Structure formats: structure tokens, C-alpha cells
UniProtKB/TrEMBL annotation, chains A, B:
Taxon lineage: Bacteria, Bacillati, Bacillota, Bacilli, Bacillales
UniProt pathway annotation: Amino-acid biosynthesis; L-methionine biosynthesis via de novo pathway; L-homoserine from L-aspartate: step 2/3; Amino-acid biosynthesis; L-threonine biosynthesis; L-threonine from L-aspartate: step 2/5; Amino-acid biosynthesis; L-lysine biosynthesis via DAP pathway; (S)-tetrahydrodipicolinate from L-aspartate: step 2/4
Family: Belongs to the aspartate-semialdehyde dehydrogenase family.
Domain of life: Bacteria
Positions annotated as active site in the UniProt record: 132 (acyl-thioester intermediate), 252 (proton acceptor)
Residues at which phosphate binds: 103
Listed EC numbers: 1.2.1.11
Entry-linked Pfam families: Semialdhyde_dh (PF01118), Semialdhyde_dhC (PF02774)
Subunit structure: Homodimer.
Domain Semialdehyde dehydrogenase NAD-binding, chain residue ranges per copy: 8-123
Species per Swiss-Prot/TrEMBL record: Paenibacillus beijingensis
A GO molecular function held by the record: NADP binding
Protein known as: Aspartate-semialdehyde dehydrogenase
Signal sequence, start to end: none
SUPFAM superfamilies noted in UniProt: Glyceraldehyde-3-phosphate dehydrogenase-like, C-terminal domain (SSF55347), NAD(P)-binding Rossmann-fold domains (SSF51735)
Length: 345, 345
């Protein structure tokens, strides 16, 4: 009987929406944990969290928190990752970062395990988890890229409010009840907590996620553009995105138009997708079966459906891609990377 | 002083969501009505409706209902239009039909006044109002088509539940309250009332509007494809659509990618749109101003924003187009046509 190696794990942002899902997954996946350290901002420090029947007290994350830590999972915002991940690395930890802080850093691998797990080996202490909306799209497109090549991607997203955090969910539910009761709606958080103008999300669609850039795109849209090219290792893919927040709690949906570099047969595309890891094809029009956010919620899979030819361009293809933004879009992707490291692969 | 000519007007489907808006507009626009006849199915006959302070009793629509009628506005479903519009024409009425019954009939003009009002002159008794999702898109694209030409349109819609009728709105509000209260959601109408499988619309996004066609597209998607080509009088435009129902009451939003035939300057596009009839440009990123369904609701305008270049294709352009699906998307477009006829233009 072999003795399994155990890892000292720190979860930074343990009380947040993603941190909570990371802990659920570490528990349900029976991750080989030696010591577990739950970290957060000063504001949430002191919170009690239960893990495998044991109670843990969340501590304030400081540079010294990472002594003896082997794997640190960060999801407490980009500023926290920027400030603390280098200290964790100094102490010998491998950091898996869920924020935008290191994604486009050339030294940092940007990893979706189904797409480019081999990149993990080249890390310098930090491995970045891509943006939620990017992860599910590249997971679905990778098998098509490998088989046909991709020249262009045009994506419009239908993103869940949980992507903006627990407080945004509370705001949406509060606003929704106000509308149903004929009361006043006073937007307070969305679209972007740190910006002055607020818009109602209840019974609405807001075409702004994150701040506007000088080129007229939002940061969320530019994340999809840049991260897709980096993960696919192909700057020649022409990506354009429109990112929209809609009144959904969990599960991002995406309408993706892709132009392949070579001719394809629709049945081959469906077969490639159905054989791809992490992908579940839900595509049966006569039974009215297609991916739905409410079905994707709580599942690790990326659901793909509405697979159909562009009627005008024989290399054009439409897809509807849905996944739980807190799971494959964040926590599950990070834990997959952690499992890969733990397995010493 | 001239005596204004008066018209005997019939509104078929007077108790429906669109019929109600038609009556509001005929009243607020002070349409030159002689006799007003409110018609409906047998089920709704007998309903009392107030118009300009006078009470009208809705009558069951029959072939003889149209004697003496000059203008008949139909919005009671395609079957009713197919059965009764020919009788109205026989009686000498001009029919403005809000349903899908005659849109693709080569003898029937398909009219968006801002785009092709001149087509009205060629009618044989019936003028078709396009589908709501098509109207707002072509109204916004026409000025760009005229100036640059259009080779390709890729549209993803975010459509309001009111497009599926008043009962669908009730269903969404009921489901939403059930979710908030932790009660069970029992979908009964959406996505398509006449089909067996139902999906929840509360906090969800359903990528099916109307029935699936053999080519894998829904009828709603194919309406956008075919009607756009017919209205623009250009079969060479390559259109592909993904139509999605989201939890919004009034106002369809559309993420539209358009490839122009010629190079463009972004400022020229913005100027052309801001000068176009029926279009209001809402596009100020630094002030976080862009079209929102909640702002479009109740207004006749088509709002256009998020106007930005495709970063990869210099002839590619992204737009976010929003309008009230019951107004410009249905009732207002029909009343505009009626006003054109009444003016004898």
C-alpha cells in the first residue's frame, strides 16, 4: 500500500462565491490535503467555515500566511493576487490564480486543462485560471481548432450575475422582488461596483461587464479576445466579443459564431464535440433539447448545442455554449489544475 | 379650412398585447378614424374596451366584419390573417398584417417605413409588418447599407417575453416569484405554447423562439434571415441568427455583427445612425450610456449603441440594437404604415 503525498493548501478568498465552490470541490474530490489554511481580507477574517466536518477559522491573508504552503488557490480579486502571490511563490507555493492579475503575463501559463494542461509544467510559481467566459468557449472550440483550424470567432455572451459576486446576486434578487411588488428599484452595484453609473439588472440586459477600454470594448470583452489567442497559442485567430449581463443567477450562455479554416461535415463536428473531454453535447431539436443555464448550474460540464451550419458560409458554424461560471468557469478549472499538480503529472 | 378624410378602421386582435398598443397609438396619434371596429376571436368577443373616452364592445371577427372598412390592422395570429385578410381585401380594405402569414408572399410588400415605405404603393390589399426582431435591426442597418453596402450580418438576440404574448409574461412573473420564494417552477407555455416540451424562463436564457426548421434553425431565426433580404431587396446579404428568449418583459436587445462591403470611419457610422429616422444613438462609454431594454420600453425609437470596430476585420462592425418589441417591433410600425396610407402619400 502506497502512502499518498499530502499537500498543504491555502485558499485565499475562502468566503467568496468562488472560494466556497473551491472548498466544496476539494472536499468532494477528496483532494490530498495535509494542512488547510483559509484566508481572506481583514473584513472576513474570523469567519468560521466547515470542511470535512472540521471547523476552520478564516485568517487575514498576509505575506507570512504562506509559510509551508504547497498550493495556494487565489480568488480574492486581482489586487490581492498581485500583492500576495509573489510572497506565496517565495515561500515555495504554487499559486493557481483565478483573477486577471497574471493572465496575460508572458511568464505565466494560462490553463484550461482540456486545452493546454501541458503548459502547467512551464510555470514560475503562478498558473493563471482564464476568465469564466473564455474557459467554456475555448474548451468547446479546441477540438474544432485541432481538426479544422479557426480563422474567426464572433461571440455574444449571456452572463450570469454570480460572476459579479454574491452581493450582485443579492441585488438582483432584491430588485426582482421590488419589480414584482411594484416597488422602486435602486441599483447599487451593477454593472460595475467601482464605477459611478448603476443600471437595473432585474428584467433587463446590460451590455457592460467590467470597465470600458479606449478601443470601445469592455475589459471582459478584451479578456475573451486576448485570452483565447494565448490559450490557443494562435494570434492569427480573429476574435470579437460582446459581453452582456442578463438576469440569470448561475451559468453563462454564449452564442458563438466560428469560421473554420477548412470545410467540415456537421456530423463530424458533433462527433468531435461529443468525444471531447469536459464537453456534453445537448443538441436534439425535435425533443427541444439544448443547453440551458438552469441545467448547467451545479455541474462541471460545458454544454454545447444548437450546432448548425451558417447558411451563407460553408466554413461558418453556430454554437450555443453554456457552463456554470463558478465551476468550470472558475473553481472547477482551478481544482483541475491543482489535481494535475498533486498527481505530479 | 379643409375637411380631413376619415377612415373606417378595424383592429383584429384588439384584446391582445399588440392590439392594445395599436389602439393606444391610434388614440395618441389622433388617427383620422371614422368608424372603429374592434374584432377578436370568439373567446374574447364581448370584452369592453375604451377608446377616446368611448366604450367599444369587441366583436368576433368574421368574413363579414370588414364591410365598409378602409384599413384593417391584423394581430391575432397567422391563421386568423390567412382566413380573414382575403375577405377584408374583397370588401375593399387595405390590410396591415402583423403576423407571419404573408411576409414572404412575393405579392405582399414587407414594410419598415424608415427603410422601404415606397413599397406600400405596390400592395394588392395586404401589407405585411415584419417580425419584431427584424424590424429594429433593418431600421438600424439601412443607413449603413445605403452608404457602404453589407455583405454579412451575424445577429444574436436577447428577446423579451412579451413577444410570446400576455400569458407568457404572466408565466414569467409567476415563475420568478416562485424562484424567489423557493417554490416549485412549473413551466407551462414557453418556449413554444403549441409544443410539448416546456422550459423555465425565470433566471434562464432559452435558445429557442418558435419551432425548429429542418435546417436546424428556428422559425424566428429564419424570419430574420429571409425578411432582412426581402426588405433590403438584396439576396446577396449573408444573414445568420441565433434567437434567444431572456427574462425581460418589454424590449428586444440584439448583438449585431455586420461586415460592410467598403471601408468605413467609425465617426461616419455614428453620424449616419444619429441622422437616420427613427434611430436614437445611445453611445457614451465614459458615461456608461448604452441602449437598455428597460429604457427602450414604451418608446417608439430604435436605440443603437456599443458602436465599435471589429479589431480583426476593418470592414467589421459591432452594434447593440434595442427597441420595444410591441411598439416599433409591431404596433408602431403598423400604425406608421396606416398613417402613410391615410396621408395618401
Amino acid at each position: 500500500m502506497s502512502h499518498q503525498k499530502l499537500f498543504n493548501v491555502a485558499v485565499v478568498g475562502a468566503t467568496g462565491a468562488v472560494g466556497e465552490q473551491i472548498l466544496n470541490l476539494l472536499e468532494s474530490r477528496n483532494f490530498p490535503i495535509g494542512q488547510l489554511k483559509l484566508l481572506s481580507s481583514a473584513r472576513s477574517a474570523g469567519t468560521k467555515v466547515s470542511f470535512k466536518g472540521q471547523e476552520y477559522t478564516v485568517e487575514e491573508a498576509t505575506p507570512d500566511s504562506f509559510k509551508g504552503i504547497d498550493i495556494a488557490l487565489f480568488s480574492a480579486g486581482g489586487d490581492v493576487s498581485k500583492a500576495l502571490a509573489p510572497h506565496a511563490v517565495e515561500h515555495g507555493a504554487v499559486c493557481i490564480d483565478n483573477t486577471n492579475a497574471y493572465r496575460m503575463d508572458p511568464q505565466t501559463p494560462l490553463v484550461v486543462p482540456e486545452v493546454n494542461i501541458e503548459e502547467v509544467g512551464g510555470h514560475n510559481g503562478i498558473i493563471a485560471n482564464p476568465n469564466c467566459s473564455t474557459i467554456q468557449m475555448v474548451a468547446a472550440l479546441k477540438p474544432l481548432y485541432d481538426r479544422y483550424g479557426i480563422s474567426k470567432i464572433i461571440v455574444s455572451t449571456y452572463q450570469a450575475v454570480s460572476g459579479a459576486g454574491s452581493r450582485a446576486i443579492d441585488e438582483m434578487l432584491r430588485q426582482t422582488r421590488a419589480v414584482l411588488d411594484g416597488a422602486e428599484v435602486n441599483p447599487d452595484i451593477l454593472p460595475v461596483g467601482s464605477l459611478p453609473v448603476k443600471h437595473p439588472i432585474a428584467f433587463n440586459a446590460i451590455p457592460q461587464i467590467d470597465k470600458f477600454q479606449d478601443n470601445g470594448y469592455t475589459l471582459e470583452e478584451m479578456k475573451m479576445v486576448r485570452e483565447t489567442k494565448k490559450i490557443m497559442k494562435d494570434d492569427s485567430i480573429d476574435v470579437t466579443a460582446t459581453c452582456v449581463r442578463i438576469p440569470v443567477v448561475y451559468g453563462h450562455s454564449e452564442s458563438v459564431y466560428v469560421e473554420l479554416k477548412n470545410d467540415y461535415e456537421l456530423e463530424d463536428v458533433k462527433r468531435l464535440l461529443s468525444e471531447a473531454p469536459g464537453i456534453v453535447v445537448v443538441d436534439n431539436n425535435s425533443e427541444q433539447q439544448y443547453p440551458l443555464a438552469t441545467d448547467a448550474a451545479g455541474k462541471p460540464d460545458v454544454l454545447v448545442g444548437r450546432i448548425r451550419r451558417d447558411l451563407g458560409n460553408k466554413r461558418g458554424l453556430n454554437l450555443w455554449i453554456v457552463s456554470d461560471n463558478l465551476l468550470k468557469g472558475a473553481a472547477w478549472n482551478a481544482v483541475q489544475i491543482a489535481e494535475h499538480i498533486a498527481a505530479g503529472e
